[in-house]
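Inputs:
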Amino acid sequence: MNAATAPWIILFTPLVSAALILFFGRYSRKLSAGLAIGGALLACALSWWLFFQPGEVGPNQLLWINVPDVLTVPLGMTIDPLSRTMLVVVNTIASLVFIYSLGYMAGEEGYWRYFGGLALFLFSMLGIVLANNFVMMFIFWELVGLSSYILIGHYYSRPSAADACKQAFIVNRLGDFGFMIGILTLWFATGSVVFGEIFAKVPLLESQGHYLTIACLLIFCGTIGKSAQLPLHVWLPNSMEGPTPVSSLLHAATMVAAGVYMLARVFPLLVAAPIARDFIAWVGALTCLAAGLMATQQNDIKRILAYSTISQLGYMVLGAGVAPGPDVPMFHLFTHAFFKCLLFLCAGSVIVALHHEQDIWHMGGLKSKTPITFACLVVGTLALSGFPGFSGYYSKDLIIAWAVIEKPILGWIAVLTAGLTAFYMFRLLAVVFLGTPRSDHARHARESPAVMVVPLILLAIPAWVAGYAPVEGFFFHLKEPEHVPEILHYALLAMFVLGAGLAILLYRNPAKDPVVIPLFANRFYIDDLYNWIVKNVQDSLASLGGWADRWVVDLFVAQIPSRFTWACGYILRFLQLGNIQAYAFFFGAGVVGLIYILLA
Amino acid sequence: MSPLFCLVILPIAGAALTVAGTRPRDTAVTAAALNFLASLIIFGWCKPDAGYQFVSSFPVIPSLGIHFTLGADGLSVAILLLSTAVTLAAVCIARTPAKHSNWFYASLLLISAGAVGAFASVDAFFFYMFHELALIPTFLLIGIWGSGDRQAAAWKVTTYLALGSFILLIGLIGLYLSLPVNERTFDMRRITELAASGEARPQGSVYLLLILGFGILVSLFPFHTWAPQAYASAPAPAAMLHAGVLKKFGLYGILRLVTPVFHPDVAAQFNTLLIVLVLGNILYVGLVTISQRKLDLMLAYASVMHMGYIFLGLLSWKTLGLAGAALMLVAHGLSIAALFALSGELRERTGTLDFGELGGLAKAMPAFGLLFGFAAMSAVGLPGFANFAGELLIFFGAFSAGAPSKLGLNEFQIATVVALWGVVISTIFMLRSYRRIFMGPIGDKWKALPDIATVPRLCVTGLLVLLLIAGFFPQAVLNYVVPALMWP
């Protein structure tokens, strides 16, 4: 095997697993799980192997569509530091989540559907990572949407889950609408869909006024949908209806990370379109702040984490908008993948310990009952809130530092959000683990089985250390900003102390939430607004169309002409006199008339 | 003798045998299976780059240039394969009716014979005649074995399609008359050559007649209202055959008699009008589809809507768009056949297709739900299915079509953007219907529903496998189709 064939094996192993599970999975639970986990482990091992293979890998592609002289769409592999790192992250985390699922899903029905979905999900995500052209990326982009549909809708008998998976798929397609137009725009100007060939033509694009800016913004629509940025963030919290390991996979290394990865992939285009980058930075910062505010008032343990994901994705998108290179947002994606996965698996462990209870106000006092989960959650929380010494500290502060230098307003928004992050995470920690139990389940909770706890511990380590210089230098080549205002570090530390302290103070042991802010709890009413639009605008228009099709289009195109024809026939019937002389007269008159017309 | 004869004769012979009194189902299935095998062999045999093959010709009215000529190139064999595959699935899935079962199967086979004959004809006259032949059994199938207000539906569809055919006939005669006097012929190869060499210059009026005639047959907006009623009333195999195969006659006809024959400038003067109609198909009919409350009507409208994409590809007048239209034509035929097959099965089980009464059926019928999910995903153009590749090529073709405009976007590019929005619309109505029928809590009366039986399961799986093969390897289809679209 060599570095050229390895990516193909990495990519298609999970697809083979998924296909085998589709055909044979229903006969054996062990077989389904084994195929999925085996595929993931093989892909993981190969990714690590590939990571250590030095040097460039030459052109490595097949032709998927080739209409000579007009359009060539290859299926090709990009093997560069970016994709090598991403492969390692995706496959490592996927393997851990797959194994953890063994414990979490034990006893659930639809086992084969679940593991088949996971394998398909991994396949789709790897396709995005490896793609060397826009169309291939778009193909896998859509497949990620499909696999999320399958997994979020795992408990499809539950109306909320059935609605959530539908919403996730549709909202993603909304983003893809813009993405596809962006791809068409770029192809129209450059004649190619391959990343390298388009990047080579950036000077040409730059010379055409705002063309490149518009194209970049359209491409960015894909990120808005997939990475749940404002205003298309609504599907992500609802996706919590899926099993918890799925949420963890969705939020850590796959799906939502795809949007940020795509921005990193097309970074050479973004650099040439400063206006588009400004817009991207603004969307990122506003998402970051808004989601942070929403997170402070949620009561479902998974939804709090979901909003924190949106907020952290906002940081990454902000990073893509302000940093000088793609490594800055990718570094945060990297560290976030570990600690967010850890946090979700901890939440899953809590949920299982409490017999599938997710409301934090039914929890409490779990510190001594589930000590390992507690310890791991603390690590995750510290990493997420950017406590010095933990991974999030290094990656997030880097983005904030760049933002403060490049776009001070956005930078300080990000600093403010850092305080919010500490607040909502310590709120969760305090309500769930401190104080006294608020329900019977919480009183009788026990630590989860080893198959679930071991992945927690394995993830806690990178969540802690993934930001340290040796690790960072191993995966990334970061550029530290110069002239960072001295005050920034103190400000960030102050925000952490403020947020965490306030949360502990407020939430040490209340029976219910002492702070009530309806605007945040109702997510700025954005979901309600969308529901209203769907119900009153889209469905009304549709009903109007349905009515018009029946009573207007059909009436004018079919009914009236047919009545008219019938009426003509009825009138003409009177001309059938049954009299030869009369017919001869009509015939003669017709001939005379015809000759007159022809000669005249 | 041309092996294409065998393709045309087999279903006709099968129909004759069933009417003569053999066991109808066995005869029909055998004929359809043999025909599928034959078309597979022809598909493998055909050399895509070599133009029309297997040609054999008999003079019928030589003075008018009418010959009974059969022949096929890459495009034809691909569509012939689609036709026989859908026929086989339709005949296998059919439930033998209580009355006149021999005529029922004979009608199914005759629709197939008409479609196959049309797709294998090189002579425009017989191309037209074969389609007319297939309309009669369609009328009978809906009128006799249909459901609901079947007779009204049968009359409506037949009148409508006869009207479309009549306009088409005038157009064909106009095309014939526009050829040089001593060269007048119905041979499509010769017509194309004459047009390419500039000896024939058919005018815009002829173009409009042909497009309108073919358009009515493929439910171009606003001439689409026959489709929902007809497909909702038709027995499932008839809906499969008509929507999946026979309707493709109009699109195939445009690829044969319009795009290679008319000068782009002649066509361009009607572009704005036709694009508006196409957007009517995609946007307006898309919205109407969202408002449907019954699965059969929803699928019928969805099929009308997806015709808009194919039409857009055809109007683009670009190799990419035409290739996309041809690919989409095959893909849509397979996917709509699978969907109608499943909705027919569902009606047999539950007696209703009303979204309000169904729900949570995946619990009782997991395999059924899975198959329907696959078919629905193919219809919304998910990558992996041939529909995606077709739509993709159509979008690329349409986006690069037309003349540059001062506004920045020309009419084709605007149409492409709107058509892309149509993708969102189809996602909405497909996922909604899936949500309502298969997800959510299951009603008590559905808990004991048996899962899909082996025969329909195999049929639908077969159609889906073909879709997946063409979706994973679209180049395999394009290799057949594209040379046929590169006229001299």
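Strands of chain B lie at 53-61, 66-72. Flag for discussion at group meeting.
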